[in-house]
Amino acid sequence: MIQARVRDAEKYQEAEGSDTIKEWLKMLRQVLYRADDLFDEILTVDQQRPRMQVHVFFSRSNILWLNWKMAREIKSIRQELDAINSGLTSLNLRVYDHREDPKHPVAQLMKRRETASFVKAVDIIGRENDKNMIIEMLLNPKYDDEKVTVIPIVGFGGLGKTTLAQLVFNDVRVQKHFDLVTWVCVPEVDNQKAVMGKLYRCFTDEDSGDRSLNQIKSQIHDSIKSKKYLLVLDDIWDDSRDRWLDLMSLLECGRIGSKVIVTTRSDNVAKVAGTVPKSYKLGFLTDDESWELFRSLAFKQNQEESNPNLTQIGKEIVSSCGNVPLAIRVVGSLLYSKDSEKEWQLFKDDQLSKAKLMEDGNLMPVLKLSYDYLPPALKQCFAYCSLFPKDYEFSKADLVHLWMAQGYFEPSNRDIGDQYFMELLRMNFFQDPKEDGKGNVKTCKIHDLVHDLAQHIAGAENMLLGESSMQVTDELIHVSLNGWEAPSSLLATKNIRSLLGLSIERPASLEGLVSRFLSLRVLSLNNIDMVPSSIGRLRHLRYLNLARNCIECLPNAITRLENLQTLNLDSCPFLMELPRDFAKLSNLRHLVINWDTLTDLPSGFGKMTTLHELHGFIVGKGENTGIDSLPALNLRGELRIQFFKLRKNAVMEAQRATLKENQQLTSLILSFRGEETAVDSDELKRMISFLQLPQNLKYLKVLGYKGDEMPICWFDRLRKLVSISFVCCNNCRILPYLRQLPHLKSLYLQSLNALEYVEDEGTSWVGGNSGSTAHNDYFPFLEVLELEDLPRLKGWTRSSNGEALPDEISNLSLLRELQIIKCPNLASLPPSLQGLTSLQKLYIRGCPDLGKRYKKPNGKDCHILQHIPHTDISTGCELSFHDDLGFIESPEWE
């Protein structure tokens, strides 16, 4: 009931702009925040109850005292809710029938949005290349035999997707190529009859009237069955695959070679609808194009020549538009009515002009459509992003942890947070994603205009110092100080839940902040050298970022933060130990720490089964740093284990280790680069043979292993591995058996000085005899093979024909890239290499015999490489590698 009435109020406020409604919603939010604090405190006390001592009657931890305090707070909250409910009747809200609402409320807003196919091409600047690329796709003969080809154009609001589609639609080449070209704007979601009705009208020039859905479909079928058509579906939001397949079954009735252009803001829609290999991602204008568009809209005839100063002011104004055509059009149109240099300067300097632009111009409604489409959970996640500065590159993991700290999703289901992030990315609220080597998005940015939208949505609840004036009100909930000290006006607030980037010049001021902001869920501190014991009073705190500070120790009081989920201690170079009761942080899920400076771990660390993300662990630096001290069950993502020292009881500790129980761990690095790990090669081999790895591992890298053998059956249970790297294992002669790994895609062998053969056919393993492996099972999914700095390598197996790779390489049907670097004993490649049609890149460096034999144009067998598009062959070694062994392409290709 509360949610329904809040939705009524929000809709009414948006439609009418009522200050009374706004004030009522503000009061409701404030009391709900208080209720949330109370419930959180009740749950915390309930967890502590078995440990509480009743005999200290006047203690603040006394159960009777706490019960009395909570009962009083509950009574106060109920009284406020009753008053708010009483005020509801005086608002005279219209009751919206939410049962009749479409699945996404945005459909109501977009009923008023309609587009047409006409556009004046002379008014469009900067999209000529985009237009030609779309037309090239439309006229490409390779799609002539398809029943219907769907080309999505994707980008966030205001980039000009509709304008680009209009330019393509009206091009003479397109008009002549198709028997029928037609246009329809269909933003409807979950309303098949409305969509079919619009299609009926665009194909027949008649209204569907009271015809049934079957009659409408039949008429559309008759209208297109003998025609090769182009249909533009503008502004699509519905990402239901079932509804799209139903529509496609109808559209396929036209002649082969028909085309459909879809414009959308959603990558989900593009993925569901598109039939081409890749959607067309519409980008921003260039700086020159943006300026040219602005000039055409803002300047009257001869105005620029008569007042040159306007050019400089105008360029500064255009730079704030982020190369977005719609923003430039709105700004240019507003400035066209302003003649004097003073008016232009005031527009540039006045922050209120931005607000006027966003509210009164056409920009905000267009941008806000995407926001209105979001479900409530994603709306609050997006609004929280207003706390980051413009052009800030934020970490996906960190943002998800911040959302989790605010309770936007259940901590037990971190995957939901990842899904929220990816959905905002697919809806183009985020841009410039950067991926790691495994294809996972690590960082993103927000476009300046989208950042303005986030600030507009967040309103007075969120504040970013430097982006807005510090007009602190009692509505303020989340604050980002961006490295500044807290202003005095902030100290008067009571409900702050986020305090990001706070810089502390005087340690005493931190004590004062802690005593004032007891509702904090998120705290990030800069420029501190000590953490006060009073931080233990922040019982609601979920996220604590102390990274890049000069702290030497943490107070034991920090272990009273029983709700703490994320603790970031990265780049704290003087931190040598954790508090003795650290294991009491029973809800800690994510720990980032500089392991190099720690001398030991607190007892009980291995029992912290709530830890999900640890990233690093060092074995052998202290009494409690055996491999059996690694927490079990819930570690996920990536983990790096550094073996600093081979401990006295290393084998026994490996037997006790529970690493294998972390079934959500997908990436593991085992580093043996510590100076004291080369004590006993046999002991080292026994230790890792007992160290059972998680079965769901996909990525494994072994660095600096100092033994001469690895257990041949080490990978028996790791059937999901897709990438393996062995690096700087200089003494190793025998590797684990690899051919049994059915999903292996990448294999990297680098700096293995003693290795002569990758596999030894005479060696048996648990899965059977290696010689029995069928040729068609020979690395069936391998895509990348890199062999670098293997000075003794003679071949793949001992039975290889001379110093060569085996003939079985012809079975690597998916191999895309082969690199052979500094392997001087290899003399030949198998002739069967000609059968590898997927091979795109071959690099050979520092292999004298191979270089002479295969280098163009005089190499004896260079003809067997003719089918490979990119080859780089030399007897020298001038080559560069990324840290992750990725190849940096040579500037010259043969």
Order of neighbouring strands in the sheet with most strands: 16-17-18-19-20-21-24-25-26-27
**Rounded to an integer, what's the Rg over CA atoms?**
33 Å
- Extract low-pLDDT stretches: 54-58, 96-112, 763-775, 879-894
Say what the CATH topology of the domain at 107-281 is. Rossmann fold
Shape: globular
So, the CATH homologous superfamily of the domain at 107-281?
A: P-loop containing nucleotide triphosphate hydrolases
Q: Identify the CATH architecture of the domain at 107-281.
A: 3-Layer(aba) Sandwich
Report the total helices: 26
Separation, N- and C-terminal Cα atoms: 70 Å
Which class of secondary structure composition applies to the elements?
Answer: alpha/beta
CATH class of the domain at 107-281: Alpha Beta
The count of DSSP E runs of length 2 or more, i.e. the number of strands, is 27
Mean pLDDT: 82
Helix proportion of residues, in percent?
Answer: 25-40%
Largest sheet: 10 strands, parallel
Strand content: 5-15%
GO molecular function, one term: ADP binding
Domain Disease resistance R13L4/SHOC-2-like LRR: 512-786
InterPro entries: Apaf_helical, Leu-rich_rpt, LRR_dom_sf, LRR_R13L4/SHOC2-like, NB-ARC, P-loop_NTPase, Rx_N, WH-like_DNA-bd_sf
Pfam family, one: Rx_N
